[in-house]
Design a protein that fits this description.
Blueprint (H helix, E strand, L loop, with lengths): L2 H15 L2 H12 L10 H9 L6 E3 L4 E8 L2 E8 L4 E10 L2 E6 H12 L12 E2 L3 H23 L7
Antiparallel strand pairs: 1-2, 2-3, 3-4, 4-5, 4-6
Length: about 160
């Protein structure tokens, strides 16, 4: 097994250990019926991100915000995009010259399929909806909370950090 396969397998094990998929799908279900918000702009998104404890940098070309933290030779990255009144959260970690991660919706699906190989969800890769700025702020806080939990479980794992 290659280093990347070992890291990738360990990564999904750690996500399963914090019930990543259950938490993501549960939160999505609570947001599923929300209408799209009209009239929000990048400044609204920047204001919501600025109200958090994390610092984000905007990448105009790709139209997303990114937060990076380095601990114990690992670089943790949370990217956030706001397409069509949804919040798309993307986690990645750079460790041992490898990058592992992806959109929260993909990670949730992959962890769910580890537990249940025939797992299906509709839509397959759900993004969290918001219909007002309060819901947007709530969704961002949820994403940051999950990001922090993933980071902590990785940092506390001895096998990962060897």
């Amino acid at each position: 097994m290659t280093v990347q396969n070992k890291l990738s397998s360990k990564f999904y094990e750690l996500l399963a250990g914090i019930n990543f998929e259950k938490r993501y799908y549960e939160y999505y279900e609570n947001c599923r019926g929300r209408e799209k918000m009209a009239g929000y702009n990048r400044q609204d998104c920047e204001a919501v991100l600025a109200s958090t404890s994390l610092e984000f940098k905007y990448y105009k070309k790709e139209n997303f915000f990114s937060h990076k933290q380095v601990y114990k030779k690992n670089e943790f990255i949370l990217n956030v995009a706001f397409p069509y009144s949804t919040v798309e959260l993307i986690f990645s970690v750079k460790a041992k010259d490898e990058v592992i991660g992806g959109p929260f919706s993909l990670l949730a699906r992959q962890v769910a399929q580890l537990r249940e190989p025939n797992f299906e969800y509709s839509p397959p890769y759900p993004k969290i909806r918001f219909s007002n700025l309060d819901e947007l702020q709530e969704a961002v806080k949820f994403g940051i909370s999950l990001f922090e939990d993933v980071k902590q479980v990785i940092l506390s794992d001895n096998d990962w950090n060897d």
